[in-house]
Specification:
nine-stranded mixed sheet, 8 helices, two-stranded antiparallel ribbon, alpha/beta
């Protein structure tokens, strides 16, 4: 008898918001704003879960190029600085799109600020239709408003798109009771409730984003992107990072 073709592993999350900070694209010691090798590794992980049939929305930050709060410290008006930061997310989103398309993953970029020559406007039903057609959707330009972070964008889009979870990919392996870089006895949580995270004032997301997730019952998984197959392990429901839930 011919060998059976192994079935694809069963995923736990079918529609996700993958939140990436702009900083994860930066080269070693800040050598480049967008490091080609790092970009490729991230896109390979995205392609890996796309092949499993997961519907993927990406929300990308712009901190590797410009951050509004940093600009304010240098004399740039906060509103102007935030718009500059939003445009930085567009650059990062286009880089992700280009890399994914070259890997054979059909991608669409949707912007909260109209710029029709390079991105679609954000339209909820169109975004959902893209997912149904097995396209990766990249949300850029934040919410389109100053004073709101890309964490808030991720929380807002997750609520609108009825995503199963927000996966916040970072450079740390989860949420600790205190800063592990400063305290050797810091304890990492495998799972924690929104209320306990609030009580302990744990830095999961900014307060606006956190409130949106709490009110709309959108769980958050915080994990280390640099681990091999980290995103795949997350969507399969393996023990990775810290899960924040109701």
């Amino acid at each position: 008898m011919p060998d059976k073709i192994p079935s694809a592993p069963k995923v736990k999350y079918h529609r996700i918001i993958l939140k990436l900070s702009g900083e994860v694209l930066r080269g070693p010691k800040g050598s480049e704003a967008i490091d080609a090798a790092i970009l490729e590794k991230i896109c390979e992980q995205v392609k890996e879960i796309h092949l499993l049939g997961v519907q993927i929305c990406l929300v990308i930050g712009g901190g590797n190029i410009f951050r509004g709060l940093q600009g304010a410290k240098k004399g740039v008006d906060r509103t102007t600085g935030d718009y500059m930061g939003m445009l930085s997310t567009v650059i990062n989103g286009l880089a992700l799109m280009d890399c994914l398309e070259k890997m054979g993953v059909t991608t669409r970029v949707q912007s909260a600020i109209p710029m029709n020559q390079i991105a679609e406007p954000f339209i909820l039903r169109r975004a959902i239709r893209h997912l149904e057609k097995k396209r990766v959707v990249i949300f850029v330009a934040g919410t389109g408003n100053p004073y709101f972070s890309t964490d808030t964008t991720a929380a807002l889009r997750a609520s609108e798109m009825h995503a199963d979870i927000i996966m916040k990919a970072t450079k740390v392996d989860g949420i600790y009771d205190k800063d592990p870089a400063k305290h050797l006895d810091a304890v990492r949580y495998d799972e924690i409730t929104f209320i306990d995270a609030l009580r302990q004032r744990l830095n999961v997301m900014d307060s606006t984003a956190f409130s949106l997730c709490l009110d709309n019952s959108v769980p958050i998984l915080v994990f280390n992107l640099s681990q091999e197959h980290a995103i795949k392990d997350a969507v399969l429901g393996k023990k990775i990072g810290t899960l924040v839930r109701n």
